[in-house]
Amino acid sequence: MHRLLIAATVLAVGLSTLQPALAASKTRFKPTTQQVKQLHKVVTAIALEAVESWKQEKGWPRKTPTFAQDHPSIQIEHDLLVHALSHRLHPHAAIDGYVKQQLLSFKLDPRKLSEDKPSIGRLVGGMPLIIAQPDDSRISQAARTGGSSTGGAAAYFFSGRQIAFVSDLTPIPGAAGFDPTLSVAQAGVVLEITDAAVQRNDRYITATLRAGNARLESLRTLIQRLNRGTIGYRNDLMKTIPQPGGLRVAAMLTDVEQRVRAAEPSRADAFASLADETRHLNDSGSASKAVRRRLAADARKLNKAYAIVLDRYAARSGQIVPIRSTVRLDQASLEHLLVALR
Question: CA gyration radius for the chain?
Answer without folding.
Answer: 23
